[in-house]
Design brief:
The chain is of the alpha+beta class. The protein is 73% helix and 9% strand.
């Protein structure tokens, strides 16, 4: 009986190894098939480029020339950057405002741009682009997540992961943001920073938030200073008492070690309280410094903008890519049409 069981176990193990072997074999065949498909696609793409290299080159050249002419007619562009740190959730309004300015540029609405920025219409016509993007910093996400975890209950913390929080973290949630302006005028940029900032700080909602926050921080700072003074006074008084008791104990012959240890622990607690109050005061003063304004300017526009030299912003390069892409699409459509005609004749 035991021999039959042993034989059955060997058969089962053998069948298992066969199944595993077939599984690995199928997986290997699938990987090989995938590589074959990729290799075939690359070969077909290279053959397509080789066959049509002249047509594609001519299309890219024509597009590049057209783009270069447009770039030359538009004149030399200059760019400058403004780095800001919004407070009180004002970054979303800042994004809306900058995108609005860019829409005015696209519409060539120099009159409204002139009124918004307090510049002449000729200077407004020189503006070519407004854009804004966050300065990506992983620490901003970690800090925001930590603040959220401290503000919610323990049960919610367990059900809310960092990965889930990171997925909901948007561009407006970062601390610092970069505003870029392109213009044909290289010395207009510093005239733009104040109107951009004023459009946010003059908002009644943000002004109210700033006033309330500032008042609360000042009140907290004053209270912490008072508590710190009281702790320091109590610490000084306690040291005087200990000194007097030490003088009395020196005149005696017995020393109470337990009492001495308790006194040392109380002195240490007073010292720790002073340190904690001081740390809280430093933190509040830092907040008061950072959040005294709706938007803090980290780095202002440069007095003179730098020439836009990035190849991806060059019209010649952009139009060359467009010409190349359009020719690829045209040639593929021709091949598709040929294939359909042949398929129609065969059937």
């Amino acid at each position: 009986m035991s021999k039959q069981v042993k034989d059955n176990e060997e058969v089962d193990l053998g069948s298992l190894f066969v199944i595993i072997g077939k599984g690995f074999s199928k997986l290997g065949n699938l990987i090989v098939s995938m590589f074959n498909v990729i290799f075939k696609f690359l070969i077909e793409a290279l053959l397509f480029l080789k066959t049509n290299v002249i047509k594609l080159s001519i299309a890219a050249l024509i597009g590049g020339v057209v783009g270069f002419i447009i770039e030359y007619k538009n004149g030399t562009k200059y760019e400058a950057n403004l780095y800001v740190k919004p407070n009180f959730g004002s970054s979303r309004q800042l994004y809306n405002n900058v995108n609005f300015y860019n829409d005015l540029v696209k519409q060539k609405n120099s009159k409204d741009l002139s009124e918004i920025f307090g510049i002449s219409e000729d200077e407004a016509k020189s503006l070519k682009k407004f854009s804004i993007k966050p300065v990506i910093n992983e620490n901003d996400i970690l800090t925001s997540f930590d603040e959220l975890m401290q503000s919610i209950d323990t049960a919610t913390v367990k059900s809310y992961s960092y990965k889930k929080f990171k997925e909901t973290f948007t561009e407006v949630d970062y601390n610092i943001h970069e505003i870029s302006v392109e213009s044909l005028n290289d010395n207009i940029f510093q005239k733009l920073s104040q109107p951009i900032i004023s459009s946010i700080i003059n908002n009644d909602y943000f002004k109210t938030l700033k006033g309330n926050k500032k008042e609360n921080l000042k009140r907290t700072s004053s209270l912490l200073k008072k508590n710190l003074q009281q702790a320091d006074s109590l610490h000084s008084l306690y040291k005087k008492v200990l000194l007097e008791e030490a003088k009395k104990s020196n005149s005696g012959t017995t020393i109470d070690l337990a009492q001495s240890r308790n006194k040392s622990e109380r002195e240490l607690k007073l010292f720790e309280t002073s340190l904690r109050l001081n740390d809280n005061l430093v933190e509040v003063n830092d907040d008061l410094s950072e959040k005294s304004e709706v938007i803090n300017i980290v780095s202002n526009f440069q007095p003179i903008g730098h020439k836009v030299r990035e190849i991806e912003k060059n019209k010649g390069f952009q139009f060359a890519l467009v010409g190349f892409g359009l020719m690829v699409v045209f040639l593929l459509l021709v091949q598709l049409n040929t294939y359909l005609e042949e398929y129609k004749e065969r059937n």
